[in-house]
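Researcher: Next entry in the queue.
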Amino acid sequence: MFWGLSFVWLTKVVETFGWVGGVSFRAFAAVLVLLVLAKVMRVALNYQPTDTKHYAILGATSVAMNLGGMTFALSKLGTALTAILVTTIPLYSALIERVWGKEKHTPLMILGLWIGFGGVVILIGLSSQEMNKDFLLGFLGSTIASFGFALGGNYSKVKAEHIGAWEQTIGTFTFGGLYLLPFMFLVPIVKTPTLSAFGWLFLLAATASSLAYILYFRLVAEIGATKALTTEFMVPVVAVIVGAVFLGERVTVTDLIGAAAILLGSALVLGLLPLQSKTNKSSATN
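Model: Structure for this entry, 286 residues:
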């Protein structure tokens, strides 16, 4: 829910801070929020120097690549299409699990991958948006974002499962913010921030970053990266609705068909459909 609503809040933040500053300052704001909450809630934070490399890698993948790429894509593609492309994250995660964890894919999972990425092809080839430089750059940014988040989730499960969700989130956003900060020389702040601009920034940081990532890292530790990423399924639903209502964005039939294909493909990959459950039971019986 938070990630779906965050697209509208993110639009407000980018209007003032730019897409680089929006991500970097959002990351630092998220860290500040979590440190204050940890103090108030008396959460004992346990940082080990040997874990620094894990925070550095998670910051690069889950923040710099993911939030940086997604925010850049939002500036080029708009809310609806960017949110729809976010749902490819479980597909990338399944592919990474296949290579990294040597997971075996069933025929239905492979079909799901083809259907899911087929939905991406539909969105690219039949999009109502003009196939220009901005569109292609936006799609590239979205691809980097999805792959980065999928990679970060798998890394967290395989290499950083021993680290607590609070520590992972704080460390991840600290490094992620630092990585993008130097790029503000190339993409500076758009205009002088107002009190309301900081309000949008901290709202975005507290909900879609601080709290959402703590829950996400806990899910990754408990059920794995790919299954945890099913939380992304609600993102386009909420984002498309709020984008249409509050930002006046138009959603085409092609967008809906592409989104449906991506969701169906991801559902097959994750084994969420009754068809796949029956197939698995049948195979076990035989």
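Model: The mean pLDDT is 80.
Researcher: Noted, moving on.
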